[in-house]
Amino acid sequence: MKNKLKKWTLFDMALVLFMLFVLVITLYPFLNILAISLNNAVDTAKGGIHIWPRDFTFANYTQIFGSNDRLLQAFLMSILRTVVGTVTGLIASTMLAYTLSRKDFVFNKIVGLMLILTMFISGGLIPEYMLIRNLGLINNFWVYILPMLLSAFNVIIIRSFMDNIPKALEESAKIDGANDFTIFSKIIVPLCLPVIATVALFLAVGQWNSWFDTYLYARANENLTTLQYELMKILDTTNISAGDITSQNGQVIANQTNPQSIKMAITIIATVPILLVYPFLQKYFVSGLTLGAVKS
């Protein structure tokens, strides 16, 4: 019994050490980026920054926010498009998934096949641009919402989850006089909260990280600029180097930013909002991906 207990203790210790190792290699890249973004640029050029800044400073972030007076407006626009895009995308994807999950829907297979084909076949950038232009969405806020309204992948995930819901619930609701919309809103949606949270995270990340659509369709309208697009412009145009050092009366004067520091600060600015949201959706995210993948 003592030998058995000793073996389990050694196994537990080995497991704990392994999980700590996984934790370290997972967190290290992010901590390294954070440390470089908060470190003096001239000192960063010397190298050797790991998970803690040697010369702490907010100069890198000051440079980013000070170099673009539209950054706050772009931040608010990114929040707006993320919220609106996520809500509308969830409504459209969930309603379509519910329709396709109904066995009495006559065109179930045809619509499902057309939806799947969109995952493999694309019209290309030029036809897409011509379509958006003809719809009058150029320099329009809805250019952020309508093209990303539906995703075949998200619809399939939600539909797979709905297929696991007992049909007896719908049948009993119909006997009580509930119509299809009541069944959808009062029964199906509450039971699908895990997968809805999962898809919401997918949509929010996609909307938040998107900048190419701003570059193509909305860059002429300054009111529609987004955070990712503005940060991309800063990253693309910055030419500050740590070698810009001059001496005056024996004192070293240097720019407090360089391209590496700017890149790391931009990465933190773009990543932190999503990281703050993810912990609240994690439990739904895990269950939403697993429960909808297995049919009973």
TrEMBL record:
| Primary localization | membrane
SUPFAM superfamilies on file: MetI-like
Question: What InterPro entries would the database entry show?
Answer: MetI-like (IPR000515), MetI-like_sf (IPR035906)
* Membrane-spanning intervals of the chain: 12-31, 75-98, 110-129, 141-162, 183-205, 262-281
Q: Which GO terms describe its biological process?
A: transmembrane transport
Please state every residue range assigned to the domain named ABC transmembrane type-1.
75-281
Q: Which PROSITE patterns would you find in this protein's record?
A: ABC_TM1 (PS50928)
Subcellular location per UniProt equals:
Cell membrane
Give the UniProt family note: Belongs to the binding-protein-dependent transport system permease family.
Q: Which PANTHER family match?
A: ABC TRANSPORTER PERMEASE PROTEIN MG189-RELATED-RELATED, POLYGALACTURONAN_RHAMNOGALACTURONAN TRANSPORT SYSTEM PERMEASE PROTEIN YTCP
The molecule here is called Carbohydrate ABC transporter membrane protein 2, CUT1 family
